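User: I'm writing a tutorial on reading structure tokens. Could you give me a worked example: one chain, its sequence, then its tokens, then a sentence or two explaining what the tokens reveal?
Assistant: Sure. Here is the example chain.
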Amino acid sequence: MSPKDIDPVQARRAVKEYLATLDDPAYGAASDVTPKFVSPSDPAAQWTGALRNAAFFAYADNYLIDVKFGIIMDVEASRAIRQAEVGASQTMIERTEACFGIKPTWLAADTAYGSAANLDWLVNQQGIAPHVPVIDKSQREDGTFSREDFIYDEMRDVYTCPAGKTLATTGHVNSDHALRYLGSVPACRACPLKAKCCPNMPARRIVRDVNEAARDGRPHACQNGSLRAIAPLSQEGRDAVRAPQAHSAA
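And here are its predicted structure tokens:
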């Protein structure tokens, strides 16, 4: 009998527990990537080298902490990958509100929680101010213009380059949940700033996540990627997500 022919009803306990977590945001739904290795005895565990040593099957423990009173409000185990940690944080926030009627007004966490999708969930769906450094891959280190050098016009949904030209989008959302804004090939070719903008491309392209606007919901203190400004707020704030720790599944 092949693995695809296994009857879930007759499966062993470990397999049943694994199947039950396939749609959980802290486990199976956290990533579409097929795990490199799967533990036969504990298939929900994640193969990880997070401790910079020999890899092993593990879970991560995630904590939601009330920084005003120093109380752990909730704990959630997850796969030991970043996407699962984000799902666990959302689960803890919702569960804490359901159990205790407590909802944070702001949340402090590290860069792992700074994806556009998670910021959108915090700002637009939960009304929580995120003190979280964003995951930003738009910075360039080759001397050419980065995305921050372009001005975004929300009303017109276009970018304006340093030379004053417009980059527009077709509105098509790609598989990475992002839009592409493209400059005019003739305009870029004749632009005196081309060497500083797109020396190896016919025209400049800007990639913008569909949830990019949620980044604007972060407090100004976090715009430079630092959480040091959060310390004084801890005396009157609400919650923080502590960096998860990986623990062996054995």
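What the tokens reveal: The chain has two domains: 8-134+218-248, 147-213. Residues 220-238 have pLDDT under 50 and may be disordered.
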